[in-house]
Amino acid sequence: MNINPIIIVDDDPDDLELITEAFTELKVQNELIVFDNGSDFLEYMRKTEKKIFFILCDVNMQKINGLEMKKAIAADDRLRLKCVPFLFISTSKSSPEIERAYSYNVQGYFVKPLKFEQLVDMLRSMVVYWGYSLHPNS
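Below the sequence we write its predicted structure tokens.
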């Protein structure tokens, strides 16, 4: 199992709390690195030498939204070549937004569930899938 850190980026404190609680319930051994804005996340990614398991990012955020963050990663060779799986989590089911996300080569787009148990199941699926998937950070 991949025990590299999982990065969570979301500017909603309630959503961050629910996501971190769900990972805690799953008893993941991965360090959770949490950001409440895209600027701090991008700065961290430019500086860190850590291999990252995957990034779970909200789409709709205030300063820099998730799509802009993914676009910034794609435009920066050093960040792009880190080959970190990038997953969106959003309340939006907008087809144009989903198409745009995949046009930036996102590895998944998930809708935030209404029930905590569903969130736990969704995150479990992500951890299991990326745990089995071979990629440069495996």
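DSSP finds six helices and five strands in the chain.
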